[in-house]
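Friendly challenge for the regulars: who can give me the structure tokens for this chain first? No prize, just bragging rights.
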Amino acid sequence: MQKNCLQIDYRDNIAVALVDLKKGTSLQVGDRDIMLISDIKAKHKFSLENLEQGDTVTMYGVPIGKALSKLVQGEVISRSNTIHEAAHYDPNLTKSIDWTPPSVEKFKERTFLGYHREDGSVGTENNWLVIPLVFCENRNITLIEEALAEALGYAVKKNYHINTDLLIRKYQEGASSEDLSKTTIISSQEEYQQNRVFSNVDGIKFLRHDGGCGGTKEDAQALCDLLAGYITNANVAGATVLSLGCQHAQIEMLKEAVESRLMALQKPVYYLEQQQSLSERSFLEEAVQKTFVGLVEANKIIREEAPLNKLILGLECGGSDGFSGISANPALGHASDLLVALGGSAVLSEFPELNGVEQELLNRCASDALANKFADLMNNYASIAKSRGTGFENNPSPGNVKDGLITDAMKSAGAAKKGGTSPVTDVLDYVEKVNKPGLHLLCTPGNDVESTTGLAGAGCNLIVFTTGLGTPTGNPICPVIKISSNTTLFNKMSDIIDIDAGTVISGEESIEEVGERLLDLLIKVASGEVVCKARRNDQNDFIPWKRGISL
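First reply, four minutes later:
Bragging rights claimed.
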């Protein structure tokens, strides 16, 4: 049965409306009788008690703001009366937390069908990469894509395919105009893909970016480290790398970055330098030839049974709303806890959206060294933002605010729920690699695509993306599964959303039930049984993070 409002934590002095509530409505919230003095839209919050100017506003059991003026019980919480305020944190004041893993009885015998690599990792996909080391090669990447994608069955820009080649062939064979007009040339996406030359290769992914030269040497190194993360990701079978020759991001720099992640790389990687070629024509010819040969080798790999502890799950949110922190995010958090309990890995990113819950995460760090590293990364990020005249408090977008997330601390407290409750076993800076099981904290910006790009670079072979407003975001090498915080969004954008957590808001399911349903879907996606919507829509977003201000 659906409730009309929710006090998330017993310490909270505000509650969230689960439905539109009218001024004058009487509510029972815990042991309080509340009379609303404002209209409260669903997803927005109202005060549970009278607050004086300067008083702390608490939600999820942590400070999320400060009263700008006197607040009356039953009054709507808005930007006109509440300002961002986050809790202080100190790695020297951590508290030991005992974790009780959830029951994994339903999943302990489950496996998935994945692509086994020589280093022991297992991919959920088998992709080939075509990568530019510098933006000067972006045009050549496009020319190679035009030469290969359509011909090999990987041009998936729409949910159907028009086979013009069939008309040409029939015309050349002497077919009449009547025969040509009766020829069926439309096929579904599924039918088109079934005719791929390389049936065991899930995708040829053509990356483009605006880096590699013209910036700092540190930018070039970060780009090479990121690209090395993509090449060594278990979802990648091999790569073709295009270099101009004179740029900062040199082939040798990328090779060293690859070796630092995986000393004995067993994948085919072809490096081509345009300034050493005879002509553009011969350069492109060699790139297409080598890519085709690489695809032949990649096609020899087949899906085989693998334990769930080979899954590395990226935890992402974007287009968040006032329901994200009480439905989709905690449901993903439960799925994360289940996977960690099964011996797998999960990666929580977007550091600007952990603002205000740092102490809770510090308390969960498995060692003092990890706690100090996390605190240092957060402090450094915040200091750089402040030096540029901004700060984490500016993270919420207009869409966030409109749908109930009025401060960054409020947004962060809900966003952190994606990480569940398990101990933090490692803390990673941007482009560092996941090397152990358990929950990881990965330093990325809150920008959706920069963050998902970083998650795949860290080694994730699946990403779940929670959203309350809707987003099409995908990733070239990693399936991105979307989960909606509310059923209205799921029904409206079912073409880009994979699963609905709005059933938590309606009272039809518990957070745990949705989390289990999500993990079941992830196993099917990892096995190739279900294709996520971002893949169907050919959504391959890739934006490297240049270490500056991006909130």
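The domain at 127-154+196-300 is CATH 3.40.50 (Rossmann fold). The two ends are 38 Å apart (CA to CA). Your move, everyone else.
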